[in-house]
Amino acid sequence: MYIKNIKLTNFRNYKNQQVELDKEMNLFYGENAQGKTNILEAVFLCAIGKSFRAKKEKELIHLEEKNACIEMEYEKEDRSGKIKIELNDKKNIYLNGIKQSKLSDILGKINIVMFSPDDIEILKSGPAKRRRFLNIMISQLRPKYVYCLNMYLKTLEQRNHYLRQIANENSSQELLEIWDEKLAEYGAQVYEYRNEFIEKIKEKISNIHNNITQQQEELKIKYLSDCQTKETYKEELKKTRQSDIERGYTVKGIHRDDIYFFINKKQVNIYGSQGQNRTVILSLKLAELEIIKEEIGEYPILLLDDFMSELDGKRRENFLKNISNTQILITCTDEFTIPDKMCKTFQVNKGNVENINK
Ligand SMILES: Nc1ncnc2c1ncn2[C@@H]1O[C@H](COP(=O)(O)OP(=O)(O)OP(=O)(O)O)[C@@H](O)[C@H]1O
Ligand SMILES: [Mg+2]
């Protein structure tokens, strides 16, 4: 699949910008703070429905403006389409010109895998980043997952609110059963999706990692969750009920899920070297790429943000050599040539993108 063109109106530091992309290799280069990552952010927004970095959607609108618009035309093996997102006080989403009522209606239309230097946080930072990684992968392949997850989070909030009501106003504990039932139902559904995809990652990642490390390291993954089934999770909620009431929030649930990574039986984020952490992330992302490919029957679009800066020339070349039939959008601070590949090159300067191919 590939994106044919991108049109940005008042998005971040862009006023009016149109970019016609190459089916395969696209390179955006320019100095810092010119708008390179903003392009990738726009693509991410159309694929996942959210930005990967904005806390509030208002940040996406040009500071001097009130409305922004992002449009993208894409081509898949079996169909083409057009996504449009309007941002003002609200977010309006259009698919092929028709307004959609739910954000999830555009999920899975454009499939992406993003590589960025911040990916290292998936290992180094807390479990929220690891859950986020899963959420981004699963939501583009199973839009219903987003519904279950959102319902879970909404129910969790209501349960927490009620826990505080019990503590402060002595409300009846019986009603808590209703929240427990709902929470367990959605929790078990989310678990099923996550477990399905973690099994897929396990299947792929050992081989990928073996290849990268020339069989020197054995990478294993473990998924930890309190919600393996609806019944066992309900039991857990019962057991922790008193402490939940005292604390005023729910301690157990899929909002605490985590994944552990081990190299030769040692936990990577604790014992691993910098290089080992990086390699695990690369293996994880490549596993994601293979899983999406298997699911949709073609390669997703690769967004490589500043990615090449972490690799030496040889590794850059090796990485790109192994990829074909894939649209790639690369950002970097210097122009570099990609051997043996036709590459559409864009110079990015103060919110202006210019194709410099002769
Ligand atoms: N809402 C906004 N309105 C106007 N300008 C914005 C807005 N949000 C971000 N910017 C500007 O966009 C620029 C950052 O863009 P971006 O993150 O794409 O940079 P970059 O080219 O990737 O830089 P780097 O090489 O440092 O990663 C900054 O100049 C920032 O001030
Ligand atoms: Mg950047």
What does this structure look like?
- The chain is α/β, with parallel strands linked by helices and 358 residues long.
- It folds into two domains: 1-111 and 300-358, P-loop containing nucleotide triphosphate hydrolases (Rossmann fold, 3-Layer(aba) Sandwich); 118-299, RecF/RecN/SMC, N-terminal domain (Glutathione S-transferase Yfyf (Class Pi), Chain A, domain 2, Up-down Bundle).
- It is built from ten helices and 15 strands.
- It has helices at 36-48, 121-124, 127-141, 143-169, 176-212, 230-239, 241-247, 268-271, 274-296, 313-321; strands at 2-9, 16-20, 25-29, 68-75, 80-87, 91-95, 98-100, 112-115, 219-224, 258-263, 266-267, 301-305, 328-332, 343-348, 353-355.
- The two termini are 26 Å apart.
- The relative contact order is 0.17.
- The chain binds adenosine-5'-triphosphate and magnesium ion.
- Magnesium ion binds at residues 36-37, 305-306, 331.
Key descriptive features of the protein:
single chain, 358 residues, alpha/beta, Rossmann fold, Glutathione S-transferase Yfyf (Class Pi), Chain A, domain 2, 2 domains, six-stranded mixed sheet, 15 strands, binds adenosine-5'-triphosphate, binds magnesium ion
